[in-house]
User: Fold these one by one.
Assistant:
Number 1:
Amino acid sequence: MVGSWIGSTIAEKMATCSTKTDESQEGVKMTYAEVENQKEEIPAVLGSHDINEEQVALFRKFITASPEFHRKMTKTLTRKVDFHLMPMIALMFMLNFLDRNNLSQARLGTLEKDLGMTGTDFNLATSILFVGYLLMQLPSNLLLTRVRPSLYLGAAMTIWGTISAAQAATHSFTAIVLCRFFLGLAEAPFFPGSMLLMSSWYTRPELALRIAWFYCGHSFANAFGGLLGAGVLANLSGAHGIAGWRWLFIIEGTLTIGSAICSTLILPDYPATTRWLSTEERAYAQWRLVKEVGEADAPGASTIKEGVMLALRDPRLYLFTLLQHASLLTQTFQYFFPTILQTLGYGNIETLLLTAPVWAFTFFSSLVVTYTSGRFTDRSIHIMCLIMISCAGNIIAVATLNTAGRFFALFLLPLGALPAYQILLAWVANSFPRPLVKRSVCISFTNMIGNTANIYGTYMYPSVDGPRYLAGGAATGGVCILVALLTLITRLELQRQNKKLVLREEFESDGNPTQPRDTEEAEGAPVGFRYAL
């Protein structure tokens, strides 16, 4: 593939130049000369790839450009992409989670009474969403590699906003369960699609912090959702003969539909197809990824069948899937957070207001730890330390009924679990190199199987276990320890892979023929590629 060949050329030349004086003219001439020697090979492969003659010429220019040029281009490009992508996608995630989680706020109103819900009915209404959510994960992400992300994600958002608002019209338990199921189907494309889109624009050091900004939508959803829920239940209950919880669904669904229309105009597509970038900027966006992993994100670089098979043959996929599943299981408390917080003895409105500072603190803490994770290219140690903070929160929450102690524990629960998961998401996206379809399958597969935790995890906090919730808290604390152990195993496995890559490069640098890579290795990875640990 032309992307792989150019990526290897770039990486090899950079590795060579790094042993000499910084950006010497001799090194530049050598690089340019060797690229020129390959120009006869280019026409033979151009026809089957999304890289044309003009882009190849620009790639040559980027290879020989000065460090000042790269700093300027990187700054200009990332600013443009950040401006269009990050605020919009964070808002979309906030509304995504708001529409998914508003059932827990509606519960503090008259939802259960009006719909005749008893026993574990609320748990079923919560968990059924994830059945629909899981069914659409993989097919949706495969489709996303063939259509414009801006239109696809915007359309999905419009549909889920409509269904969310329609929940206000339900008058039975069966109706709310059906709405929640179809809401899950409609929400499924967004999260894995967003991960795929961000990983198509940002390099490995850049991605962790961007995921933190993306995930701020989650924290704002919990904080803003509590404030909005408190305001609606306090001031709109009975307005025009409509219950407060119905107003909550109507307002949040309407906000989602309006934002969806804006997203189709603002979101970027893939680097090769985004219209508001210049030709040079589009080529540079692709070149940055070529330089890092050996291939540009070309939607047609491989067929869907090839991408699926590449993913399913990769053993790391199953290790990361288990890790993501366990990590999501440590977060199931958030679907009952207002209910757990209410055990401190406060009223409904006060309880919703008290959720805001917890999630605001979690958001700012996430920015710090994900920045250090990207800055030092570390994933595993950050995850292990953070998840043990959440473990401590679970231990305190089940060990005491003291109000101050339990409120402190409720700060620790999301403070550890959520930033750890954000870093894990970056780790997954970084650990599966191109082609685009393979990475799409890996992201959606880990998210799909991982989210099965939310189906049974929602039964870990039945109302009869209050106020201590001993079984749920103890089980979640144990799963936190499991996450730490799985993270350590993953780190050791990737260290082993990095050693194999070093030995292979040493073998091939001695003039030995290039060896075919097995399914465990990064296929097409350029010289110098290493897995983030």
Number 2:
Amino acid sequence: MSAGSERGAAATPGGLPAPCASKVELRLSCRHLLDRDPLTKSDPSVALLQQAQGQWVQVGRTEVVRSSLHPVFSKVFTVDYYFEEVQRLRFEVYDTHGPSGFSCQEDDFLGGMECTLGQIVAQKKVTRPLLLKFGRNAGKSTITVIAEDISGNNGYVELSFRARKLDDKDLFSKSDPFLELYRVNDDQGLQLVYRTEVVKNNLNPVWEPFKVSLSSLCSCEETRPLKCLVWDYDSRGKHDFIGEFSTTFEEMQKAFEEGQAQWDCVNPKYKQKRRSYKNSGVVILADLKFHRVYSFLDYIMGGCQIHFTVAIDFTASNGDPRNSCSLHYINPYQPNEYLKALVSVGEICQDYDSDKRFSALGFGARIPPKYEVSHDFAINFNPEDDECEGVSGAGLSIASQGHGHGCSEAAPLLFLWAPQAARMSTVWLTHLPSVGRAQSRPARGRLLWAPALPGARLAQPPGAAAQQYYILLILTDGVVTDMADTREAIVRASRLPMSIIIVGVGNADFTDMQVLDGDDGVLRSPRGEPALRDIVQFVPFRELKNQREQHERLLGSTTRLPLLLPTSATQRGTHSTHVRFYPASPAALAKCVLAEVPKQVVEYYSHRGLPPRGLGVPAGEASPGCTS
């Protein structure tokens, strides 16, 4: 859960890419608060707390609105929303003493309200009474929380305003102006989008630039009315109204392009009383930049194909396949660990593959007819066509009969994907998994690779859009002996359109695999070169298996049941697909297996500056960002 910017941007994208989760913005306001100050009115702020493992944890706090019993807070909380989880929230309102901070120890408690994020999202707008300790009502005090889904927003806007010749509202000094930007909702109500800082003693203020999402600014409707109000700040909360003007985002863009982005700041009362009245100053749009933000779905719906290759470990550490203790042992009554993992992960993964066919490779086995060790062989023993029809393909049943050899050398397989291609100066590839293999394949799109230098960039033909992305799924018992070469391969692969999912099978020590994940820091090659992106996701299958077995015990059955799973943990609430799966925890499986893939896809194409096909960047727009 993350909060908006301190000065109140509605959705401040900050650094790109954005986190991969469905996002909801929460906007807060209060009415009829208790007045705890003897000489002035309360200075309220709201602390947001979330329940985690039975404990309330403060995750953010609004700004302080001085001397107000009916505050409208500009700071917006952006929260991750999961429809399958009960996310309990608590809003605590305080009369703040001293500077606004995280601690509330010295502040006077004005009331609190508890609810779930699901309740807020379902109703979109929730108004509840504030309660004091022991459930007593805090007078007529209420808090209103408005939720807005921003997971489908398609960009953010950078705006910068200045003003000229504003009215002077102060007797012994000049006005201290600040500007408020509002969106007009369908019910004609005003929703605060942003409040600028106060510029002291200045009738020609220049306010700091700020960022807001297009969804927050105008609900992604460029013709939606907007209203700007300019005030003279008063420390007691009794701000003097200077003037206002109305516009739309569409009008702002057009006026800015034509160099005429300025509006009369009008006080309706003055205009009504004075015939000679023209304005109370002029507000000028000094800068406008629109940053298009593409999501994972934008790329998928734009025709980007995601291709899967599965690689299975047949090294001797798995044990003799004729022994019932072997991870590759064929039990006529139940599948072995590898096939369980393959079904568990593959049935989710194959829904991302357009033709439901994927290459199935093996490493670390002695292959007939010569029974020589191979770290790159087709599991169906057909080097001309190693693809299988889904996870139940005939080639996968043959896989369990390989003869193990030696130790797990994962790097040769990874070099099949990355370094072999990188060592080529300039070469056209028809299919990424076939790099370094002398065989022909149906063309699935062509990629152009740059010269092999440290940090060399992947290039695509001029005018290309995002078309192909590859995911390598490795099933292994985790005993890796060539870690240095594997790290080198992953660092090079981080510059390619690919992700690597590693599923650990059995009870071996997976410490090295955790290192490859990169969640605890940037993965580096033995030479110290950092990975461009975090492309590895490691999942220990035993954890998923334990969850599944526990679920089966609760059901009292091991029957295979159809369940509805999200296509990705990061696309919850946006679109879903029917997937058949063992009765495990759908949320845990989606999170563990595919949690980071959508972000990795968008990160790659955003870094390359490649828009989704059919969604090129119009002239004058900023480079595409990313979200998911």
Number 3:
Amino acid sequence: MSNFDKATSFLGDYGSFQILIIVLLGLSGIPCGYMGVIVVFVSDTPEHHCKVWSNSTINGAHLEAPFHEISSWIGPDSCSRYKVRANWTVPVELGNATEECVDGWFYSTERYTATIVSEWDLVCDNAWKVPFSTSLFFVGALFGSFISGHLSDRFGRKPVFFFTLVFTPFITLIQANSVNWFMFCIFNCLKGVGTISNYITSLILGAEMLSDSARVSYTFLGHSLGYGLGYALLPLFAYFIRGWRMLLVASAIPGLLLFPTWWLIPESPRWLLQKGRVDEAELVIRNAAKRNRVPVPEVLFKAGECSEQMPEEKAQQTFTYMDLIRPRNMRNITILGVFIWMSVAMVFYGLALNTSNLNGNIYLNCFIYAAIDIVMYIATWLLVNRAPRPIVLFSSMMFCGIMLLIIMLVPDDMHLMFQVLGLLGRIGVSAAYSFMFLFFPELFPTVVRTMGLGVNSTGARLGTILSPYVIYLGVYSKILPYLIFGTFSIMAAVFSMLLPDTRNRQFPDLISQVQSIRSTAPSDMINLLQLNTTKPKELVVDLRRVRTPMTPVSIQGVITDIVEEYKYLGAFKDSKLDWAKNTDALYKKG
């Protein structure tokens, strides 16, 4: 338990204040749950065929026939049509030669009144524009992940959260009035910026206000469950709203309705302490105690006793993304996190975006996927504290990978088996996706937590940008997307075992409190480190006691990067150690 947790333990775990935070921030996850996958319906490609010949009676002769029958005699595929033998005004006689759809296309309205595909003819030679427009949402999410972390660490969690809460629906309303495909893509990218920024900031804001027990509940039953409910509402809205413009308008409404929660959700007290704004942090805690109806100690945060409360001269210190890669422990966790997030997000969104390519009812398939997500969020919440964190992540991603790779053994005509194995893979990746939002905030310290999550989320967006194109490979080989998704799932599972276990450990606040990965021996396990330098002899560093703050360390010689890594204090000359006799007086900075 950190000093902050001790100072605020009188609030309890599940008082009125904590429940209010869990519910309100959980509701903010609903719009995020459908914004990234609404393209399943907005950008779906209806059945289509070439428009019939305008100068023949064929325009009105057979239009009452079923759509697929019309398509079969108009042309061999949806991108070409048979040429007529002459310029007939009576029922035409078709030849074997074909031509492109020079008059455009006719789209079925059996499922949709309109999508962006039918409105702007994004088929055949223009079919590439569909996955491209989808990827642009995740390109925006990539930039949003990167900039939102820095902004919320600098200006606060609450301002960034509420700005993006309003920004996203505002952009969505403009997107609904797009006059062409290019305008749609621009605002789809901006929508990605706002959606992911809001999602990450809400996670950090809630996690930093709650105790360890409540934080686990919030991550799964608030944050992730809200996301799952939003995903489950999507097929319901899409079923009753068959036009893409009105569907976007409806998707913007929930975010706007949540803005009045500004007066109920406070700023993160941990962030306020880290910035030296102690009075504001105490006010947040006292208001929480008042809502929980518990007495408040006269002094909440004693000077120098709270690790979040930085010294006055460092209270205004600005941390940058370089702080994520300078210290070795931070660098290892950041690199592993980027790859794991990229892999999990690519598989998670790839399977979701593949809904329209599955056999059966698209609305039912989408709802089943959402229901699986919700069930797995609850199941993961029940199991998360029963096993080490890396084991949970490893098990879920390994299960997903195995299920998806088994699809290679299934004959092409067994469509039901494809769907069953795909759903089983979805179970594993859904558990991993929600679990990441609990695990990785526990790995990053308060001073760079949002930036760390932002960088990891940037990696995730790289995966989601690739996912539409991985799905598109299914045109050439039905099993190829599953092979790629399964391979990345297993790789992520293996790398997850290198991460340190954070179960029942304190929430880190300073970079010095970050744990090392499992492949790196702890400093107190190192007995002797030998370093070759420009000196003619081999120099030896005795690091047997470096874990104890302000403990003398006997050093006969050392190079600059080791000094930086362990933050020694000593005599230096031009960024190098003074090779004089006083080198034995070096200390490890506590």
